[in-house]
Specification:
Elements (H helix, E strand, L loop, with lengths): L16 H15 L11 H15 L2 H6 L5 H5 L3
């Protein structure tokens, strides 16, 4: 659950197949298999967390505060 001043937004985000493969490979290498040899990783939750942390660390708040970044999204009906 996010902190009180945050909301969860479900969005469609395009990432490449190789990027998703890299996420899965890295997660498997870091976590390792369980006692039965299975990899138990919630890939969707992992990707969501990685994207959320990336946006926070890379200054998404400052990005959206700049009106220049809206031009392409608004011109195509977005």
């Amino acid at each position: 659950m996010p902190p009180n001043n945050m909301v969860v937004i479900n969005a469609h985000i395009e990432i490449s197949g190789p990027t998703l493969q890299k996420i899965v490979q890295t997660a498997k290498a870091l976590k390792g298999p369980d006692e039965k040899g299975y990899f138990r990783i919630d890939t969707a939750a992992l990707v969501s967390d990685l994207i959320s942390r990336f946006l926070a660390e890379q200054g998404f708040d400052a990005y959206v505060a700049n009106g220049r970044h809206y031009a392409n999204s608004l011109s195509d009906g977005g």
